Amino acid sequence: MNAPAPEAAALLARLDDLGMRPYTEIGVFGARHAVEASRWMQGAKPGGVSTREVLADGGDGPLPVRVYHPEPGTELPLTVWLHGGGWVAGSVALADRPCRAIAAASRTVVASVEYRRAPETPFPGPLDDAVAATRWLATHAHTLGADGSRVAVGGDSAGATLATAAARRLRGARWLRRQVLVYPPLTPPDPDAHPSWKQFGAGHLLTREDMTWFWHHYLGCDPHAAIPPPDAAPLTAPGHAGVAPVSIAVAGCDPLRDEGVAYAVRLGETRVPVSLREWPDMIHGFLGMGGELAATAELVAWIADELSREET
Protein backbone atom coordinates (compact mmCIF):
# COMPACT_ATOMS: atom_id res chain seq x y z
CA MET A 1 0.00 0.00 0.00
CA ASN A 2 1.21 3.52 -0.75
CA ALA A 3 2.49 5.63 2.13
CA PRO A 4 3.05 9.40 2.24
CA ALA A 5 6.54 10.66 1.50
CA PRO A 6 8.44 11.66 4.66
CA GLU A 7 7.88 15.38 4.02
CA ALA A 8 4.15 14.76 3.42
CA ALA A 9 3.90 12.65 6.58
CA ALA A 10 5.67 15.39 8.54
CA LEU A 11 3.22 17.96 7.17
CA LEU A 12 0.25 15.80 8.14
CA ALA A 13 1.67 15.49 11.67
CA ARG A 14 2.18 19.24 11.86
CA LEU A 15 -1.40 19.89 10.78
CA ASP A 16 -2.59 17.44 13.40
CA ASP A 17 -0.53 19.27 16.04
CA LEU A 18 -2.15 22.54 14.96
CA GLY A 19 -5.50 21.05 15.95
CA MET A 20 -7.26 20.87 12.60
CA ARG A 21 -10.91 20.04 13.15
CA PRO A 22 -13.27 18.30 10.72
CA TYR A 23 -15.26 20.55 8.43
CA THR A 24 -18.35 18.73 9.62
CA GLU A 25 -17.71 20.24 13.08
CA ILE A 26 -16.67 23.78 12.17
CA GLY A 27 -19.39 24.42 9.59
CA VAL A 28 -19.43 26.45 6.40
CA PHE A 29 -17.86 29.66 7.72
CA GLY A 30 -15.26 27.73 9.68
CA ALA A 31 -14.41 25.65 6.62
CA ARG A 32 -13.97 28.76 4.49
CA HIS A 33 -11.72 30.34 7.08
CA ALA A 34 -9.63 27.18 7.49
CA VAL A 35 -9.15 26.73 3.75
CA GLU A 36 -8.11 30.37 3.24
CA ALA A 37 -5.75 30.12 6.21
CA SER A 38 -3.95 27.20 4.56
CA ARG A 39 -2.13 29.60 2.24
CA TRP A 40 0.90 29.47 4.53
CA MET A 41 1.71 26.12 2.89
CA GLN A 42 1.97 27.60 -0.60
CA GLY A 43 5.38 29.22 -0.22
CA ALA A 44 6.66 32.36 -1.92
CA LYS A 45 4.59 34.13 -4.57
CA PRO A 46 6.01 33.44 -8.05
CA GLY A 47 7.10 36.55 -9.92
CA GLY A 48 7.21 37.53 -13.57
CA VAL A 49 3.45 37.34 -14.20
CA SER A 50 1.18 40.30 -14.97
CA THR A 51 -2.32 40.30 -13.47
CA ARG A 52 -5.58 42.10 -14.15
CA GLU A 53 -9.16 41.78 -12.96
CA VAL A 54 -12.13 41.43 -15.33
CA LEU A 55 -15.80 40.57 -15.07
CA ALA A 56 -16.99 37.59 -17.10
CA ASP A 57 -20.48 36.26 -17.70
CA GLY A 58 -21.65 33.75 -15.13
CA GLY A 59 -24.71 31.58 -14.91
CA ASP A 60 -26.72 34.35 -13.22
CA GLY A 61 -24.75 37.57 -13.60
CA PRO A 62 -21.15 38.79 -13.80
CA LEU A 63 -18.30 36.95 -12.07
CA PRO A 64 -14.88 38.30 -11.02
CA VAL A 65 -11.97 36.72 -12.89
CA ARG A 66 -8.27 37.24 -12.23
CA VAL A 67 -6.18 36.98 -15.38
CA TYR A 68 -2.48 36.02 -15.29
CA HIS A 69 -0.34 36.81 -18.32
CA PRO A 70 3.29 35.60 -18.32
CA GLU A 71 4.30 37.61 -21.39
CA PRO A 72 2.15 40.73 -21.91
CA GLY A 73 2.01 41.80 -25.53
CA THR A 74 2.23 38.22 -26.82
CA GLU A 75 -0.95 36.31 -27.68
CA LEU A 76 -0.81 32.99 -25.85
CA PRO A 77 -3.20 30.05 -25.35
CA LEU A 78 -5.88 30.49 -22.68
CA THR A 79 -6.32 28.30 -19.61
CA VAL A 80 -9.53 28.74 -17.58
CA TRP A 81 -8.86 27.63 -13.99
CA LEU A 82 -11.43 26.63 -11.35
CA HIS A 83 -10.23 26.54 -7.74
CA GLY A 84 -10.74 23.75 -5.25
CA GLY A 85 -12.46 23.87 -1.86
CA GLY A 86 -15.26 21.32 -1.95
CA TRP A 87 -17.63 23.70 -3.81
CA VAL A 88 -18.10 25.34 -0.39
CA ALA A 89 -14.74 27.03 0.25
CA GLY A 90 -11.77 28.24 -1.76
CA SER A 91 -11.44 31.37 -3.86
CA VAL A 92 -9.46 33.17 -6.52
CA ALA A 93 -7.29 34.50 -3.67
CA LEU A 94 -6.55 30.96 -2.48
CA ALA A 95 -5.60 29.91 -6.03
CA ASP A 96 -3.43 32.97 -6.68
CA ARG A 97 0.03 31.45 -6.19
CA PRO A 98 -0.72 28.16 -7.97
CA CYS A 99 -2.22 30.09 -10.90
CA ARG A 100 0.85 32.34 -11.10
CA ALA A 101 3.06 29.27 -11.16
CA ILE A 102 0.96 27.55 -13.83
CA ALA A 103 0.91 30.67 -16.03
CA ALA A 104 4.68 31.11 -15.79
CA ALA A 105 5.48 27.44 -16.40
CA SER A 106 2.97 26.85 -19.20
CA ARG A 107 3.24 30.16 -21.04
CA THR A 108 -0.53 30.34 -21.16
CA VAL A 109 -2.86 33.10 -20.04
CA VAL A 110 -4.55 31.72 -16.93
CA ALA A 111 -8.02 33.04 -16.06
CA SER A 112 -9.08 32.12 -12.50
CA VAL A 113 -12.86 32.23 -12.03
CA GLU A 114 -14.65 33.27 -8.82
CA TYR A 115 -17.65 30.98 -9.30
CA ARG A 116 -20.55 30.95 -6.83
CA ARG A 117 -20.30 28.44 -3.99
CA ALA A 118 -22.58 26.08 -2.12
CA PRO A 119 -24.60 25.95 0.04
CA GLU A 120 -25.85 29.40 -1.01
CA THR A 121 -25.65 28.29 -4.65
CA PRO A 122 -25.79 24.50 -4.95
CA PHE A 123 -25.57 22.45 -8.15
CA PRO A 124 -26.00 23.39 -10.94
CA GLY A 125 -25.12 27.02 -10.09
CA PRO A 126 -21.32 26.63 -9.79
CA LEU A 127 -21.26 24.56 -12.98
CA ASP A 128 -23.43 27.08 -14.83
CA ASP A 129 -20.87 29.71 -13.83
CA ALA A 130 -17.97 27.57 -15.05
CA VAL A 131 -19.60 27.00 -18.44
CA ALA A 132 -20.71 30.60 -18.97
CA ALA A 133 -17.37 32.04 -17.86
CA THR A 134 -15.39 29.66 -20.07
CA ARG A 135 -17.49 30.63 -23.09
CA TRP A 136 -17.14 34.35 -22.31
CA LEU A 137 -13.39 34.11 -21.78
CA ALA A 138 -12.92 32.21 -25.03
CA THR A 139 -15.01 34.78 -26.91
CA HIS A 140 -13.15 37.74 -25.37
CA ALA A 141 -9.72 36.10 -25.31
CA HIS A 142 -8.18 38.70 -27.61
CA THR A 143 -8.91 41.44 -25.07
CA LEU A 144 -6.93 39.42 -22.50
CA GLY A 145 -3.92 38.87 -24.74
CA ALA A 146 -4.96 35.28 -25.38
CA ASP A 147 -5.85 33.09 -28.35
CA GLY A 148 -9.51 32.12 -28.21
CA SER A 149 -8.96 29.22 -30.61
CA ARG A 150 -6.65 27.45 -28.13
CA VAL A 151 -8.47 27.10 -24.81
CA ALA A 152 -8.08 24.62 -21.97
CA VAL A 153 -10.20 24.29 -18.86
CA GLY A 154 -8.76 22.92 -15.65
CA GLY A 155 -8.98 22.88 -11.90
CA ASP A 156 -7.97 21.17 -8.70
CA SER A 157 -10.19 19.06 -6.46
CA ALA A 158 -13.79 20.35 -6.66
CA GLY A 159 -12.65 22.77 -9.36
CA ALA A 160 -11.54 19.79 -11.43
CA THR A 161 -15.04 18.33 -11.16
CA LEU A 162 -16.47 21.60 -12.46
CA ALA A 163 -13.86 21.69 -15.23
CA THR A 164 -14.66 18.24 -16.60
CA ALA A 165 -18.43 18.78 -16.27
CA ALA A 166 -18.06 22.10 -18.11
CA ALA A 167 -16.11 20.32 -20.84
CA ARG A 168 -19.01 17.85 -21.15
CA ARG A 169 -21.44 20.72 -21.70
CA LEU A 170 -19.06 22.37 -24.14
CA ARG A 171 -18.30 19.29 -26.22
CA GLY A 172 -18.30 20.22 -29.84
CA ALA A 173 -16.65 23.58 -29.16
CA ARG A 174 -13.64 23.38 -31.47
CA TRP A 175 -11.74 26.00 -29.47
CA LEU A 176 -11.72 23.80 -26.34
CA ARG A 177 -8.53 21.77 -26.74
CA ARG A 178 -7.95 20.12 -23.35
CA GLN A 179 -9.15 19.58 -19.78
CA VAL A 180 -6.63 19.29 -16.94
CA LEU A 181 -7.98 17.67 -13.78
CA VAL A 182 -5.94 17.63 -10.56
CA TYR A 183 -7.18 15.00 -8.06
CA PRO A 184 -10.86 15.37 -9.00
CA PRO A 185 -13.80 14.10 -6.88
CA LEU A 186 -16.05 12.48 -9.46
CA THR A 187 -18.77 10.75 -7.43
CA PRO A 188 -19.81 10.69 -3.74
CA PRO A 189 -17.53 8.52 -1.58
CA ASP A 190 -18.04 4.80 -2.13
CA PRO A 191 -15.45 2.61 -0.36
CA ASP A 192 -16.82 -0.55 -1.98
CA ALA A 193 -16.33 0.79 -5.52
CA HIS A 194 -13.16 2.76 -4.73
CA PRO A 195 -10.95 1.11 -2.07
CA SER A 196 -8.75 4.21 -1.72
CA TRP A 197 -11.53 5.53 0.52
CA LYS A 198 -10.88 2.60 2.89
CA GLN A 199 -7.11 3.08 2.74
CA PHE A 200 -6.88 6.86 3.02
CA GLY A 201 -10.31 8.09 4.14
CA ALA A 202 -8.96 9.07 7.56
CA GLY A 203 -5.65 10.53 8.67
CA HIS A 204 -4.65 11.84 5.24
CA LEU A 205 -6.11 15.37 5.39
CA LEU A 206 -9.31 14.79 3.36
CA THR A 207 -11.70 12.43 5.17
CA ARG A 208 -14.67 10.45 3.97
CA GLU A 209 -16.96 12.35 6.36
CA ASP A 210 -15.77 15.74 5.14
CA MET A 211 -16.09 14.77 1.47
CA THR A 212 -19.63 13.51 2.09
CA TRP A 213 -20.37 16.86 3.80
CA PHE A 214 -19.06 18.75 0.75
CA TRP A 215 -21.18 16.64 -1.61
CA HIS A 216 -24.25 17.20 0.59
CA HIS A 217 -23.85 20.97 0.31
CA TYR A 218 -23.10 20.85 -3.42
CA LEU A 219 -26.07 18.65 -4.30
CA GLY A 220 -28.39 20.15 -1.70
CA CYS A 221 -29.38 16.68 -0.48
CA ASP A 222 -28.01 13.41 0.88
CA PRO A 223 -25.41 12.43 -1.74
CA HIS A 224 -26.15 8.74 -1.24
CA ALA A 225 -29.94 9.00 -1.48
CA ALA A 226 -29.90 8.64 -5.26
CA ILE A 227 -27.46 8.58 -8.16
CA PRO A 228 -26.43 12.22 -8.69
CA PRO A 229 -26.83 13.83 -12.12
CA PRO A 230 -23.96 13.11 -14.55
CA ASP A 231 -23.06 16.80 -14.72
CA ALA A 232 -22.61 16.81 -10.94
CA ALA A 233 -20.76 13.48 -10.67
CA PRO A 234 -19.10 12.86 -14.06
CA LEU A 235 -18.04 9.30 -13.22
CA THR A 236 -21.74 8.35 -13.34
CA ALA A 237 -22.17 9.71 -16.88
CA PRO A 238 -23.27 7.09 -19.45
CA GLY A 239 -20.93 8.37 -22.15
CA HIS A 240 -18.10 10.79 -22.83
CA ALA A 241 -17.75 10.77 -26.60
CA GLY A 242 -16.80 14.10 -28.08
CA VAL A 243 -15.28 15.73 -25.01
CA ALA A 244 -11.92 17.46 -25.20
CA PRO A 245 -8.80 15.38 -24.44
CA VAL A 246 -8.23 14.90 -20.72
CA SER A 247 -5.17 15.04 -18.46
CA ILE A 248 -5.65 13.67 -14.93
CA ALA A 249 -3.28 13.94 -11.96
CA VAL A 250 -3.89 11.83 -8.87
CA ALA A 251 -2.13 11.54 -5.52
CA GLY A 252 -1.40 8.00 -4.38
CA CYS A 253 -2.31 8.68 -0.73
CA ASP A 254 -5.52 10.53 -1.54
CA PRO A 255 -8.92 8.89 -0.92
CA LEU A 256 -9.97 10.33 -4.32
CA ARG A 257 -7.22 8.42 -6.15
CA ASP A 258 -9.35 5.53 -7.39
CA GLU A 259 -12.04 7.85 -8.77
CA GLY A 260 -9.48 9.60 -10.95
CA VAL A 261 -8.05 6.30 -12.17
CA ALA A 262 -11.53 4.90 -12.88
CA TYR A 263 -12.41 8.04 -14.83
CA ALA A 264 -9.29 7.68 -16.96
CA VAL A 265 -10.27 4.08 -17.76
CA ARG A 266 -13.84 5.12 -18.59
CA LEU A 267 -12.64 7.88 -20.91
CA GLY A 268 -10.24 5.51 -22.64
CA GLU A 269 -13.05 3.05 -23.26
CA THR A 270 -14.90 5.86 -25.05
CA ARG A 271 -11.74 6.57 -27.07
CA VAL A 272 -11.28 9.99 -25.52
CA PRO A 273 -7.54 10.80 -25.50
CA VAL A 274 -6.49 10.64 -21.86
CA SER A 275 -3.24 11.09 -19.96
CA LEU A 276 -3.00 9.86 -16.35
CA ARG A 277 -0.18 10.64 -13.91
CA GLU A 278 0.05 9.43 -10.32
CA TRP A 279 2.28 10.78 -7.55
CA PRO A 280 2.34 7.60 -5.40
CA ASP A 281 3.50 9.20 -2.13
CA MET A 282 1.58 12.48 -2.25
CA ILE A 283 -1.58 13.59 -0.42
CA HIS A 284 -4.69 15.47 -1.48
CA GLY A 285 -4.19 19.19 -2.00
CA PHE A 286 -0.48 19.12 -2.76
CA LEU A 287 -0.80 21.66 -5.58
CA GLY A 288 -1.29 24.22 -2.80
CA MET A 289 1.64 23.03 -0.67
CA GLY A 290 4.59 24.30 -2.66
CA GLY A 291 6.25 25.83 0.39
CA GLU A 292 6.31 22.43 2.12
CA LEU A 293 6.46 19.75 -0.59
CA ALA A 294 9.00 19.55 -3.42
CA ALA A 295 6.56 17.49 -5.50
CA THR A 296 4.39 20.58 -6.03
CA ALA A 297 6.91 21.98 -8.52
CA GLU A 298 6.85 18.66 -10.37
CA LEU A 299 3.05 18.80 -10.52
CA VAL A 300 3.12 22.36 -11.91
CA ALA A 301 5.64 21.27 -14.56
CA TRP A 302 3.38 18.34 -15.50
CA ILE A 303 0.37 20.67 -15.82
CA ALA A 304 2.43 22.94 -18.08
CA ASP A 305 3.48 20.00 -20.25
CA GLU A 306 -0.09 18.76 -20.54
CA LEU A 307 -1.35 22.21 -21.52
CA SER A 308 1.11 22.19 -24.41
CA ARG A 309 0.20 18.67 -25.54
CA GLU A 310 -1.28 18.40 -29.02
CA GLU A 311 -3.36 15.36 -29.94
CA THR A 312 -2.79 13.83 -33.37
Automatic annotation (TrEMBL):
The UniProt entry, under Gene3D superfamilies, shows: alpha/beta hydrolase
- The question of whether Repeat is a record keyword is answered with no
Give the domain of life: Bacteria
A GO molecular function assigned to this protein is: hydrolase activity
Stretches that traverse the bilayer: none
Q: What is the lineage of its organism?
A: Bacteria, Bacillati, Actinomycetota, Actinomycetes, Pseudonocardiales
What are the UniProt keywords, alphabetically? Hydrolase
One Pfam family it belongs to: Abhydrolase_3
The organism of origin for this protein: Pseudonocardia alni subsp. carboxydivorans
Question: Which SUPFAM superfamilies does the annotation name?
Answer: alpha/beta-Hydrolases
Answer yes or no on keyword Hydrolase. Answer: yes
* Name of the featured protein: Alpha/beta hydrolase
Domain Alpha/beta hydrolase fold-3 positions:
80-287
